[in-house]
Amino acid sequence: MTEPATGLLDGRIAVVTGAAQGLGYAIAELFVENGASIVIGDLDGDAAAAAAARLGDRAVGVACDVTVPADVDALLDTATKTFGRLDIMVNNAGVTRDLTMRKMTVDDFQFVIDVHLRGTWLGTKAASALLREQGTGGAIINMSSISGKVGNAGQTNYSAAKAGIVGLTKAAAKEVGFAGIRVNALQPGIIETAMTQKLSDEIRAQRLADVPLGRFGEPAEVAKVALFLASDLASYVTGVVVEIAGGRNI
After folding, report:
1. Which of 47, 130, 150, 159 has the fewest CB atoms within 10 Å, i.e. the most exposed one?
2. Where would I find the Ketoreductase domain in this sequence (predicted)?
3. What's the pTM value of the predicted model, to 2 decimals?
């Protein structure tokens, strides 16, 4: 692991959910490069531990089901017991079960809502309580999606959850701002991850045609915006939603 590149998060402690791969891992990696210590939470505990090992001795990985309150509490407890406190919470864990409404079951709908919306609410609730108790302020970053802005056919569950995260973020920002806690959301467009690479060539072509920059994004480009929101550069930024979509759906 290289030494911190800029030190924007020097000495900070961050928790990132769903960070064994994809956007979560890219965020954790950039945070570590900028001086943070990281707790990676993932449903796959072995994958979380392996991801943390790649990041070096300032990272630990633990199993966490973000829909289970006790798991979320244990995840934050790992941060305080291992590194002494919490400064940054990134609620990133997510899943998809894309189907048209005609084919989507209630379970398909509820599962996606639970992981994204319930999971983000639990993470925001637990992190803000801990940050208030510490009295140190802090930053919470919630992962929405451009799908939560415009909706995608076949994603009534996912789009609903991601739209809900926007409302949750704004409401939470109003509740905890007095304590110096900032709550913001990211809305990535099509980013080259394992999840988006499952899309058919036809769907990829259709969505690319809507992107003014003419390409899909990279995980590192999402991570850079998360870094900004987590750092003191965004000290007067709260309750906002930042689109990282190459201009798609503007």
Report:
1. 150
2. 12-193
3. 0.94
